Amino acid sequence: MRSYLRLAASAAILPLLFSQAAMADGIAGAPAPFDKGGVKLALISYISAGDFFQAYQAGAVAQAKALGIDLRVFPGRQDASEEREQVLQAINLGVSGIVIDHGVPESLADVAQQALDKGIKVVAFDVNLNNPNIPQVEQSDHALAQQALAQVVKENGKSFVAGYVYVAGFAPLDRRNEVWEKFKADNAGVVEKAHFGNVSDTTATTTADQAKAALTANPDIKVVFAPYDEFARGVKLAAGDLGIKDKIKIYSADVSTADIQEITEDGSPWVATVATNPAVVGAVSIRAAALQVAGQAVPHQISVEPTLLTQAALRAAGVKTIEDLADKLPAFNTSDAATASWIPQKLF
Ligand code: SR1
Fold it and tell me: Which residues contact 25 (CB under 8 A, 6 or more apart)?
């Protein structure tokens, strides 16, 4: 009798236990399907190497975990046809949403549309898929370049010989380039004497080789606008090898712990960067996909605002890591883009 009662009691409790387990996978108070959990999303990247892209992915993974999402991460090897194939694989996996991070629009637009046609939500970060049903995440690249160039003017005036690092075809670099072109048009005293750059799996070292040639041929270059941290790292490497670290100033985009160390070290020519926290951008991208999967509206343009970080300010504040930066500048660790009350946000 006793064991019967124990059995009956357990039988009564079992469904409760199961339902609690199921609730543990979902989020209490969240809209379907996040109330139950088990939502599958894919993150498909064009580039995975480098500090920016690793931090972006880490932020996406953290936000997905907090939402109980099963996130399939497809690594990027700067191969447009492989990225296209990965979108098709994600569709076949039956994911509810896909985040496409950088890439070549021509090889992605039709497969992204195929995903939409199957009811899969798509979000694009820094790749212009030119589709009204695909929200675009970016780091306010025009504002980013404007802030960097305002700092250039503050420190160098409006007449100087410049080097410029740029590769066409990447949406964020193209947007930053629009600002650079306007800046030159508005400031006749700014003379661009060298333009170089590459995006590859060895961006920094290849840029360093190019920068060495450009800086040797143009010893009057005083300012280098290098709006991607891998570019700035390459130019700094070249300046060190040529022994001209005290002759040029480098202005960039992006930040990481390694960048902060390079910017703040004694005698560094890398004097300012304008950056978001890439982990926050990764989290925002996942939130935008999750909101759509939950049937909630997101704006077509989603922007994460960047901050100017000067060498002087980083040194004065004793900032040595990204974590220090977030401690001193709490806004750096959050964004109010693509949020909802049911989405956990304290991730890092
Ligand atoms: C090759 S594109 C590199 C840029 O993508 C992201 O927007 C980062 O800010 C980086 O500068």
Answer: 36, 37, 38, 68
- Which residues, in sequence order, are bridge partners of residue 136? 124, 301
* Ligand 1 atom closest to 253 (CA): 11
Q: What is the 3-state secondary structure (H, E, C) of 79-135?
A: CHHHHHHHHHHHHHHCCCEEEEECCCHHHHHHHHHHHHHCCCEEEEECCCCCCCCCC
Name the one residue in this structure whose structure tokens are 């075809």. 169
pLDDT digits (tens, 9 = 90+) for 286-338: 999 999 999 999 999 999 999 999 999 999 999 999 999 999 998 899 999 99
Q: Determine the Cα–Cα distance for residues 337 and 301; give it in Å rounded to an integer.
A: 10
CA-nearest residue, atom 11 of ligand 1:
228
The letter for the amino acid at 340 is A
Q: Which atom of ligand 1 is nearest to the CA of 52?
A: 8
Coil, helix or strand at residue 275: strand
With a Cβ cut-off of 6 Å, ligand 1 is lined by 52, 126, 139, 170, 172-173, 199, 228, 253-254
In order of 74, 142, 329, the CA distances from 83 in angstroms are 8, 27, 36
Tell me: cis bond preceding 33? Omega within 30 of 0 counts. yes
Query: Which structure tokens are listed for 253?
Result: 């985009």
Report the alpha-carbon distance of residue 201 to residue 214 in Å, rounded. Answer: 21
Closest C-alpha to 276, from 294, 295, 303, 297: 303
> What six digits make up the tokens of 75?
């690594």
Nearest CA to 225 out of 145, 158, 139, 314 is that of 145
Phi, psi angles (nearest 5°) of residue 70:
-90, 100
Sequence-distant (6+) residues with CB within 8 A of 309 are: 255, 263, 272, 273, 274, 275, 325
Q: Whole-angstrom Cα distance, residue 257 to residue 278? A: 12
pLDDT, tens digit (0-9, with 9 covering 90-100), for 112-166: 999 999 999 999 999 999 999 999 999 999 999 999 999 999 999 999 999 999 9
SS3 288: helix
Tokens of 126: 């820094």
